[in-house]
């Protein structure tokens, strides 16, 4: 008979107690309990109606051709500056502080791990908090984007682009290398809140060669059969039960 979620939480607790090096790999599902919709759940952005599909609007070709429409979608749906960390972000920050967790690898752009206090966060898809002028390279914070209507422009007249990885763009090399190394050195890998369908990010979990892999996700994913423990539950609810 399949173990209950609380039995599985106990197993995860036991692994964490005995682990030297835990690494967390997360996606949009880590922030749904903070009120930010993911892409592929029932209320996810892919189920909502926009004039173009989200994967089109979040492509570099679309950004270059239709910056106004890009920013309308981005500001309404992606720029979650008021969102607050949930129990998952908070517990991961605590685990790092106590020396239990060496890194958070995230596909998210919302900055909630840092808001919760995590330091070693490798952002594979960039961050809404970093923006730059495409003409002169000047850096801007998120206020420059959130406080203006329309397409944000630099003092030099160039268009400002968020440092978030759009479809067709490469992933930041530094974050990728650090994430790969962290996962390779981990003895426990916790994968959570990700459909593991966005590549190349999802490929990173293949670097894991440690003892145990736990997967916490509401929907089934391609990694289920490979994980040692699959908790079909909310990541915030699971991690809030972990004691460190
Ligand atoms: P996804 O939408 O493809 O998958 C999310 C997965 O999380 C789903 O399988 C869903 O069942 C699960 N899930 C949702 N809420 C959960 C919860 N509370 N607990 C456990 N599981 C939960 O997301 P993805 O795999 O991260 O890929 C989508 C891409 O879009 C990524 O690049 C991601 O960064 C980006 N994105 C980011 C944000 C953000 O920064 N918060 C929001 C939307 C999309």
A few lines on this structure:
By secondary structure, this protein is an alpha/beta fold. Helices cover 30% and strands 17% of the residues.
If you had to describe this structure to a student in words, what would you say it looks like?
The protein is α/β, with parallel strands linked by helices and 244 residues long. The chain contains nine helices and nine strands. The site of nicotinamide-adenine-dinucleotide (NAD) has 29 residues, from loops.
- What's the end-to-end separation, in Å? 29 Å
Q: What is the strand content? A: 15-25%
Low-confidence stretches: none
Describe the sheet with the most strands: 6 strands, parallel
> What would you call the structural class?
alpha/beta
Rg, nearest Å: 18 Å
Strand order in the largest sheet:
3-2-1-7-8-9
The number of strands is 9
User: Taking all residues together, what is the mean pLDDT?
Assistant: 94
Proportion of helical residues: 25-40%
The bound ligands are: nicotinamide-adenine-dinucleotide
What features would you highlight for this structure?
9 helices; six-stranded parallel beta sheet; 9 strands; 244 residues; alpha/beta; three-stranded antiparallel beta sheet; binds nicotinamide-adenine-dinucleotide; globular
């Amino acid at each position: 008979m399949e173990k209950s979620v609380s039995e599985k939480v106990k197993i995860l607790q036991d692994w964490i107690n005995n682990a030297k090096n835990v690494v967390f790999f997360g996606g949009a599902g880590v922030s749904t309990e903070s009120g930010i919709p993911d892409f592929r759940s029932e209320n996810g952005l892919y189920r909502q109606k926009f004039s173009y599909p989200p994967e089109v609007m979040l492509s570099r070709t679309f950004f270059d051709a239709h910056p106004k429409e890009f920013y309308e979608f981005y500001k309404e749906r992606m720029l979650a500056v008021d969102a607050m960390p949930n129990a998952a972000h908070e517990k991961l920050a605590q685990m790092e502080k106590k020396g239990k967790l060496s890194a958070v690898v995230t596909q998210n752009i919302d900055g909630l791990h840092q808001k919760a206090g995590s330091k070693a966060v490798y952002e594979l898809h960039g961050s809404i908090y970093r923006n730059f002028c495409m003409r002169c390279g000047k850096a801007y914070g998120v206020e420059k984007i959130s406080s203006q209507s329309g397409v944000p422009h630099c003092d030099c007249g160039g268009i400002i682009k968020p440092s978030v990885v759009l479809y067709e763009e490469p992933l930041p090399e530094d974050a990728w290398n650090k994430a790969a190394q962290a996962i390779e050195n981990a003895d426990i890998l916790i994968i959570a809140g990700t459909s593991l369908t966005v590549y190349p990010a999802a490929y990173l979990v293949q670097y894991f060669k440690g003892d145990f892999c736990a997967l916490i996700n509401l929907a089934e994913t391609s990694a289920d059969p490979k994980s040692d423990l699959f908790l079909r539950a909310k990541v915030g609810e699971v991690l809030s039960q972990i004691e460190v």
